[in-house]
Queue: 4 jobs
Job 1
Amino acid sequence: MGDPVWAAIISGALGVGGAILGTVLGGKMSRRTSVEAIAASNENAIAIMKDQEFIVASARLRAAFAPAQSKIIIEFYADGRKLRDFFYEELGVHAAAVEMFRPFASDGVAYQKAWDEYQKTINHERGTSNEEWPWTSNVFETEEGIIPPNFTGAILDKIEKIFHFASPN
């Protein structure tokens, strides 16, 4: 073993073997790290995409109700019957927006209840001799028999209850 040639060969072989072993192990560790980084990046991209879809759906829901919100404030005192007709016509637009947002609602049962309450308020006394009363007097009777002093405020409140689901948690 005293021969320097053999010592150089063994030393070189150990160096090459170490380099190969380091390359193989380092490559596997590097690959694992890369795969984990790609997976984390994909999860982040999906989360961002879902957040953006929620934002767009929320904006569409709010946009569908925006004309009604502004019209109720501006036109109620001018002509309640005209406002009533507007809401009856817009109910289909509102229904479509509510259904488009439904997959994003965190609590489907509560969301449906908010929508049902809105429809009930809009359709209050519809088809009866009292149909014009809440629209022209700004008061209406609830199932509990209470007469709120502000029918249009009740409608706006029902809209806000629907919008509650379009707010980020």
Job 2
Amino acid sequence: MPSSLALPLAFVLLAALVVIDLPLVASCAGHAEARPTPSAAPFGGPRVDGPAALRATLRRLDRQLVAGAGPAFAAHYEAEAVLVLPGGRRHVGREALEAVGNAAPFRGLRDLSTEALDVTQGALEATTSARFRYVENGPPGGVPREVRGRRTSVWRRDATGRWRVVADVWTSAPTR
């Protein structure tokens, strides 16, 4: 990783840990004994897992957010997950995340793309670092604006073996 990215990335990860309740982070250690067993995919095939699965889930989250599929979007998050969007607005819990997903089309959110830059995965926890870009409506009578930035997500495998987001922090960068 270039040294110019190390400090901002460390700051985002630190911010994610501050946003998450410390008892929640401490409880991750207690999940180490309850290792989920791999499940079979439909039709008896192996379950897709690893970095490719996390990248695919990020793309699915993008599509669901742009489509306004709030319940499907929120289902990828843990019950008390935290989502911090550009501008610092914090949303906690599936109900709040569902509302974010439902409202996205009304804000004019479109052309959302996420490029996963780094995926670090353990047996039960993972992090993804990504670059994102989207367009949203500007103020009434204004022009749409492009938003670019970084996104860091902390994931945990649930008891069924499915990856769920614990914290999802989006930070915007000025568009050149």
Job 3
Amino acid sequence: MHIGFVYALILFGCFSYGYGNGDIAGNITNQEAEKAKNFSPMDKSDSSQKKDYLSYHDKKSLNILIITWRGSTDAERGFFDRLKNMNYDAKCINFDAGQSVNSLIKFLSKKFTTNGIDYVYTFGTQASLLVADKLKNSVPQIFNVVSFPEKCGLVNDNHSHNGGNLSGIKSSASIDAQISNAMEFLKFKKLGVLVSTKEQNCLDSYSQIVESAKKFGFEVQQIDINKKKDLQSTISKIKMARDKYSMDALFITAGSIFVSNIKDIVSVANELKIPSIAEIEKMVADGALFGTVSNYYMAGKIAADILYINQFGIPMDQIPVQKCPTYKCINKRTLKALGLPCNVCCEVSYDDDK
């Protein structure tokens, strides 16, 4: 099969899902695009295509090193489900950093090897950065759930990779979009921001919130947390921010430490009648009020599609970073507890009876 057609076929599927950023389709002809419309591996609705699609290759084994930051998530489930659907037999070596930079550095320095490895999959900003530095383009790397891959240095602002042997998934909506969506029904003037100062994605989110504050006209108060044992002091800081700075809303960045302790954090916020905005759906499910969030399972499927494109001969540095679909999510239990009206339309909600 002509590689240009395969490329067009997959790219059309990316765009039909709404996450392609559109900057690599320049050489695709109208004829190829028209063919892709009639035969897209991304098309979930036509089961007859699935059979033809799988016939592109016999079942193929791949050795994949999986490096996660805070255990297995729906992103990995989506990744493997998609590979299985595409007739790949993925044999995996797994390492979880347990939210510890030292643990990951120790693994990379003493136990890490790419012998016999076809791909390295990494979850999260911290793990992806450290692994990319270690790999130095020796093996294709697919990063997933990285909030700001350009800002943290994985890729350039124009989504090119400097010849790097990697590509992946930008997982979050822009901070402007998250703030704008929240302000559809929350009128806050002083926003507290929970920041894990040891996690780059949290620092990146905070810097962009500061910029958004200038556009939307509110003040920002940073609330730091570095490790789990600081949780009680962080709760005290939330109370102090409410009393001393008149904080009237709380933004919870996508730090792993916050994911692990979200129920305790939102319990305090809800008790103080402080509405919370979260970057991750699990936080909303566990009590945060609202978020413009990514679908991790879909992010995993998109990551598998990047692998598929590369398998058909497209170099990783020619596969642009993909944007995972985002949607509004609200916790109606928290909404009721805070006594807030909500006229915003949310695609996902957590109700009182769940």
Job 4
Amino acid sequence: MWANITWAQWQKTSYPMKVLPNRARYRIPHCIYDNYFFLSPGTSSTLYRSSDYGFTWQDISFNKKGFVQSIFHTGNFVIGSFSKGASYGGPDTITGVYRSSDNGDTWERIRDSSFRGCLFLFDDGNKLYGDLSSGGMASSSDNGDTWMKYQTSMSGPFTNSLIRNGNYLYAANSNGGVYRSLDSALTWQTFDTDVSSWILNDLIGIGSTLFTSYGLYRSDDSAEHWRQIKLPYNISYLSTSKNFIFAAGDRWDTADMHVLSSGDKGNSFREITDNLQGSQLNLLAVSNDYLYAGTDSGLWRRPLAELGVPTEVTAGYSVGDLLAVQAYDNFSRNEIVFEFRVLKEMSIDIHIYDQLGRVIFTHGSQERLEFGKHQVAINSLSLPKGPLYGRIISNLGESQTVKLIHY
């Protein structure tokens, strides 16, 4: 029955447009955890913070430490590396590594001498790793209190992506190649493969399978061999949730933006760009049951459930006090069913529209709905077949609209 659901597609958030620059191939540094979402503008010392899953934003400037190279959450801290100057990641612009224990209200500088010239930070769930402009890396096992510095055999100082998958740590290098470490980045292996000469952007793992981009490549043997997944797009960004892959890039010939999804480890993809606006994408991230996309038109989000990813509708799925609505055609009982959650007591009306936007059905109730999950079933015998739109409107002034197919 759930195969009949169609959703409301991409939602544009209120994130200020000016902080999503049209900067080819450079991802916007971001950090998502719990109900906080930090996203760097990449153009100034301003950092924006959201406490409602990326829908509204607060400007939290922090004394001109520079723009954010990387930022993430670990333990009780938010940690970020910062730089000054116009260049993105230039070694001579590094200003330092800072951390915050109060969700970005105040910041302290990490002054360990091993950590000077940090370009990018990574967290594999056990340790923090810093990519140093002088070459080599530094690591910390105590949320940044102390660091150990060491040289690596990787080519150049620029690591674009670092993940832990199974027993190995993997790093995608901007000078080409995917490196593998069994001893927490002390020593690295690389292999003479098809990806050794490519500037690699993202690296993700699903089970024992790895994927990397520029373009899209897949490895089933711990990065020793790679095969190209041929797509008509130049894939630059990857993200994952459950067993789903999300990939974004542009066409080789026209440079228009595309977002794709795959639920079978890259064997097949479908287009999910739909109503997403913009000509260039510089962020693709998954968190809190949403897929986020940053384009030169702003920051957008889309519920993972509508893309087929198994999720639970929770309080983290909210735009306001009326939570994300889903609707489906229970044709065996001649019903259209609406399911939703509310965060506070309210009453609701339901309107159903045809493809021309005309109201063809209304359902109103003065019944007060309490906090929790609710379901409303509407007799569908009098409704026309085909695409319809359902809108739930609360007495608090909130509304959500979904598209559905009536069979």
